[in-house]
UniProtKB/TrEMBL annotation:
Pfam families: DAO (PF01266). It comes from Neorhizobium lilium. GO terms for molecular function: oxidoreductase activity. Keywords: Membrane, Oxidoreductase, Transmembrane, Transmembrane helix. This is FAD-binding oxidoreductase. PANTHER family: GLYCINE OXIDASE (PTHR13847:SF289), SARCOSINE DEHYDROGENASE-RELATED (PTHR13847). Residues 9-353 form the FAD dependent oxidoreductase domain. The chain crosses the membrane at residues 6-26. GO terms for cellular component: cytoplasm.
């Protein structure tokens, strides 16, 4: 018995939120067309550090959603077995040795939530997780979270797309900028850059940092705090590092094929914003990231650049995710969040539930887009 409230859905954006939701809808028997302006994962999903975690401090509702997200990755890992693009070997973080250091407070908060955490002095870190130059850890110590992990989103998206296509889903790439068609207060489909119209019972807008602007074209407000991100990938190098590192000067994530992914707030601030909308990255910025990463790794190895990606990193204005149907436009759903990797699978599951069933899931209640609408 088909209990779906919709039969056809168009999803704009083939990053992790779009693809994950597309697969979940296809599993429910919904006919889905997935549109992307260029190649799959050509946006934020292709340049994400992709650290799977719920560390530090945030709202209880956001923590629960992130924990559900991590749970779905563990279920996926149990189903597919060992792969080189998904790992749960923990996360290690330490703060600068100044007034901004919140390691003790963060640890106490994590313990209060029963989030698996160890507060370790520098000399105890090597026994907990390998590959770190412990001399760089500040006197306040570090937090090791054994249950954290990482994912390579382009690899995951490839796997999900394979299932989506096998289930009869339609993928349209290099479609250019698409727009949501709104008629009589309802989303009725999407129009591609060449004017082709794809009609549907519902539309999901999952275009990463472009969501607020595209929603604004329909008269809907989603507060936007999107900055620019820079992700550097190294050439393969044999290292004992297993955990994701979040340190004062650099974040380091192991990747497929013995590569490393690197980013840092300071490096993003050095990105040049050009008048034509493109970005420039100085060679010394990239080299600086490689040097900072080497400093925190055991043996201080020489790291070499393989590639880098630069572009906008989706972050809502209040920092929390934005998921669900626009209150003012029936059938118009949005997905907009910074934590795309951690929430990737669970967001797709819950959005597909809402789109297909017409029911609102309680876990998404705090993250509705209408929270940005001013009270009259």
């Amino acid at each position: 018995m088909n209990e779906n409230k919709v039969n056809t859905v168009v999803i704009i954006g083939a990053g992790i939120f779009g693809v994950s939701t597309a697969v979940q809808l296809a599993r429910k028997g919904v006919k889905v067309t997935l549109l992307n302006d260029g190649p799959v994962a050509n946006g934020a999903s292709g340049r994400s550090l992709s650290w799977l975690n719920s560390s530090r401090m945030r709202s209880d509702a956001y923590h629960r959603l992130r924990m559900a997200g991590i749970d779905r990755y563990r279920s996926l890992a149990a189903r597919i077995g060992q792969v080189d693009w998904l790992s749960f070997k923990g996360g290690l973080t330490w703060d600068a040795d100044d007034a901004s250091n919140e390691i003790e407070a963060a640890y106490e908060h994590e313990v209060s939530l029963a989030y698996d955490a160890l507060h370790l002095p520098a000399d105890k870190v090597p026994a907990a997780t390998p590959g770190i130059d412990a001399s760089t850890i500040t006197p306040q110590g570090a937090i090791f979270n054994p249950g954290e992990g990482w994912v390579d989103l382009p690899s995951l998206i490839k796997v999900l797309l394979s299932e989506f296509l096998a289930l009869g889903g339609v993928l349209v790439t290099d479609a250019g900028a698409a727009r949501v068609i709104v008629e009589a207060g309802r989303a009725t489909g999407a129009e591609t850059a060449n004017g082709s119209r794809l009609l549907a019972d519902a539309v999901l807008l999952a275009t990463g940092p472009s969501v607020p602007k595209m929603a604004a074209e329909a008269g809907q407000t989603i507060d936007d705090g999107t900055p620019v991100s820079l992700l550097v990938t190294t050439k393969p190098i044999e290292l004992p590092l297993k955990a994701v590192l979040n340190t004062p000067r650099v974040a380091v994530r192991p990747g497929p094929g013995n590569t490393l992914a690197l980013d840092a707030a300071w490096s993003e601030e050095e990105v040049e914003h050009r008048a034509d909308g493109s970005y420039g990255v100085k060679p010394e910025t990239v080299e600086g990231l490689l040097i900072e990463a080497s400093k925190v790794l055991e043996g201080n190895p020489k790291l070499e650049l393989a590639s880098y990606g630069v572009g906008r990193k989706p972050i809502p204005g209040d920092g929390d995710p934005v998921f669900g149907e626009l209150q003012a436009i029936s059938g118009y759903f949005v997905a907009f969040s910074h934590s795309g990797a951690t929430l990737g699978l669970i967001a797709g599951e819950l959005l597909a539930y809402e789109i297909a069933s017409g029911q609102r899931h309680p876990m998404l209640a705090p993250f509705r887009p209408e929270r940005f609408v001013a009270n009259p």
